[in-house]
């Protein structure tokens, strides 16, 4: 098997479509078994990173090869797959990954969160609450929360073993001293099951509370860093904070300008070349379903 | 001939289906899951045989509790290529068919402080997944708490209680009966009321 030449994330060249004759879900059975064993260990030790032998995939690392390998090891013929990138189902990355799995598995796909049995995501958790039985796979660029404190993997492993997380609190508190608040907007570290410090991948901190006691199974795959970890359903996930500076999420002064939602994560998007801007839901499925419901009820009223 | 004993009817999709059952079992401790049916060699429960085909290969070492028919070993070698060890502590997977005569939990590997995942996974065959003294468990994967009545003696739960006090070190188990699987990850702890009712002593960690 060959892999595409490395390109930067988001580079225009789409991943080549695998040739016919590949195994179901692309990976060979031996590779799937090794990844499956790592996933099971991850579920047994929530938030703890399990090393695995990441394989070459027919796309470069920025495309989310870790998440793709996890999805490929979990997916079955009966699954309905949803893929989102920054909340949207229709970006190049999401479309290509969805197309890839359609090609190598022939599975059903959907854009509706509630219809999916398996969801692969880059950088968002949907607004519609996940359900028991769903599997939610995150693409992770950097799994190690201690990396910027301790770049040596061996040393970071020791810190996790000793539950030596003081330096992480010190780092966050330096933010408070400097800025008056914790400035981290993405990949805000969490404690899982009261024991393991974990990076939630670059989701906005707005999404952090959704991880806590979630009925779905959450799996995390880091391809370049060769790590897999997990949060089982109904597991405590707590964002790090301080008594005098409790954790809080972003909020906006205005609702979504498409659907009027006041409870969703908003992106500021440029709408024309005159510098016009709008605040709209980052979760396109949520926004479109709300708009449809509103036009439906408007028709009923009329 | 042993080599004529079939494995999965559909190697790829049956393994995937069984993996999801194992995954769900571990993610939702105490809730039974169903595997695909297959004709196992005498001595193996169908669900345990499916698990072996799904998880074992050349990279895994297996400890078989003595007393299993020789066909089991040949079947595993033929279908998975797994290696065997005589030392419970050195095994990635331990296949237990008589829990009451099995080594104590402390004789298997609980992993290391930095690599708690390098522990032994226990594959425990039971006559049924019910019928024992009810036990209440709590922990990840369990909303509030769940009652199970696995047919295990209180000595097992006493050892389990000691083990879970050493988290993240520990063992993860799958229990098998016919085509059913129940997961028991190291995070599943006995609730306080259970170990008191069994007359256990507390191991110095707070609930
Ligand atoms: Zn909206």
UniProtKB/TrEMBL annotation, chain A:
GO molecular function, one term: 4 iron, 4 sulfur cluster binding
Renumbered residue ranges of the record's region Disordered: 1-20
Domain of life from the UniProt record: Bacteria
Compositionally biased spans, kind Pro residues: 9-19
Pfam families assigned to the protein according to its UniProt record, in alphabetical order: PhnJ
GO terms for biological process, alphabetical: organic phosphonate catabolic process
Descriptive protein name: Alpha-D-ribose 1-methylphosphonate 5-phosphate C-P-lyase PhnJ
From TrEMBL, chain B:
One Gene Ontology biological process: organic phosphonate metabolic process
Keyword line: Lyase
GO molecular function: lyase activity
Family matches, as Gene3D superfamilies: Bacterial phosphonate metabolism protein PhnH (3.40.50.11310)
Keyword Lyase part of the UniProt annotation: yes
Name of the protein this chain belongs to: Phosphonate C-P lyase system protein PhnH
Native source species: Leptothoe spongobia TAU-MAC 1115
UniProt gene name: phnH
């Amino acid at each position: 098997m060959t892999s595409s030449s490395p390109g930067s994330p988001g580079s225009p060249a789409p991943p080549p479509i695998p040739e016919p004759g590949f195994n179901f879900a692309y990976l060979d059975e031996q590779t799937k078994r090794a990844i499956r064993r790592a996933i099971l260990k991850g579920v047994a030790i929530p938030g703890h990173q399990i090393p695995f032998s990441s394989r070459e995939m027919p796309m470069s690392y920025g495309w989310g090869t870790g998440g793709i390998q996890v999805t490929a090891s979990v997916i079955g013929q009966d699954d309905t797959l949803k893929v989102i990138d920054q909340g949207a189902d229709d970006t190049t990355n999401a479309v290509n990954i969805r197309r890839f799995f359609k090609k190598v598995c022939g599975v059903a796909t959907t854009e509706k969160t509630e219809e999916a049995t398996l969801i692969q995501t880059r950088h968002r958790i949907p607004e519609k609450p996940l359900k028991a039985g769903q599997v939610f796979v995150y693409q992770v660029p950097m799994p190690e929360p201690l990396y910027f404190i301790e770049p040596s993997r061996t040393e970071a492993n020791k810190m996790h073993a000793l539950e030596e997380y003081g330096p992480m609190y010190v780092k966050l508190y330096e933010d408070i001293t400097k800025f008056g608040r914790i400035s981290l907007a993405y990949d805000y570290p969490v404690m899982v099951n009261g024991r393991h410090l974990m990076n939630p991948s670059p989701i906005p901190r707005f999404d952090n509370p959704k991880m806590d006691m979630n009925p779905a199974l959450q799996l995390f795959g880091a391809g370049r860093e060769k790590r897999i970890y997990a949060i089982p359903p109904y597991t405590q996930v707590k964002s790090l904070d301080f008594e005098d500076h409790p954790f809080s999420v972003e909020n906006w002064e205005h609702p979504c300008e498409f659907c009027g939602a006041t409870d969703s994560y908003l992106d500021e998007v440029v709408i024309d070349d005159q510098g016009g801007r709008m605040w709209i839901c980052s979760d396109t499925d949520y926004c479109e379903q709300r708009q449809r419901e509103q036009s439906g009820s408007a028709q009923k009223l009329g | 001939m042993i080599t004529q004993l079939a494995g999965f009817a559909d190697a790829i999709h049956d393994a995937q289906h069984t993996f999801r059952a194992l995954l769900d079992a571990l993610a939702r401790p105490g809730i039974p899951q169903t595997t695909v049916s297959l004709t196992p060699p005498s001595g193996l429960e169908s669900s345990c045989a499916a698990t072996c085909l799904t998880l074992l290969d050349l990279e895994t070492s297996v400890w078989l509790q003595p007393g299993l028919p020789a066909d089991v070993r040949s079947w595993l070698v033929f279908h998975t290529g797994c290696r065997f060890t005589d030392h419970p502590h050195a095994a990635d997977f331990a296949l237990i068919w008589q829990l009451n005569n099995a080594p104590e939990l402390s004789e298997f590997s609980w992993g290391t402080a930095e690599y708690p995942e390098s522990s032994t996974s226990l594959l425990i065959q039971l006559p049924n997944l019910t019928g024992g003294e009810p036990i209440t468990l709590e922990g990840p994967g369990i909303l509030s708490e769940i009652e199970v009545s696995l047919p295990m003696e209180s000595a097992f739960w006493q050892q389990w209680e000691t083990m879970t006090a050493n988290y993240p070190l520990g063992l993860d188990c799958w229990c098998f009966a016919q085509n059913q699987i129940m997961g028991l990850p190291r995070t599943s702890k006995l609730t306080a009321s259970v170990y008191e009712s069994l007359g256990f002593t507390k191991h110095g960690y707070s609930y």
